[in-house]
Amino acid sequence: MSVPVTLTEQRRLPPHRRALPLLAVALARPLADIRPARLRRVLELARRGAKPATVGQALAAREAVVSVSLRCAGQHCLQRSIATALLCRFRGVWPTWCTGVRTQPFAAHAWVEAEDQLIGESYPKGHYKPLLTIGPAPRKHPDH
């Protein structure tokens, strides 16, 4: 799943802030190779107990992921989106993780959204039709 990407200037994280993004990238790599149904189950489990991510939180996570991984900064959108979602989860929040397609010309892509906005993407919302989304878990409200 990829679209052509031109690498932009990468922002470097200070050494003490690199551990969690590196862990998220490392965990995302094998997850990008598993079947979609299993990946969905893993991500649904991971999102439990997290609050919905804000645009700022999701963007900070994506920027951290691409700053520690040239692979994620390039055309590996599935790994990048999984790593971004996992890094958000490490920080107590969860974005909406998405995969989808467009037809003319055919292309598949994976991305994250927060507050109904695409995070770090150069195309408009609706450019890709979402096929699988894992949003924040529904909050349980106690009975009054």
From TrEMBL:
Q: Which domain of life is it from?
A: Bacteria
**InterPro entries named among the record's database cross-references:** McjB-like, McjB_C
Q: Which Pfam families match?
A: Transglut_core3 (PF13471)
The Microcin J25-processing protein McjB C-terminal domain covers: 22-133
Task: List the protein's name.
Answer: Lasso peptide biosynthesis B2 protein
Q: Tell me what organism the protein belongs to.
A: Streptomyces coeruleorubidus
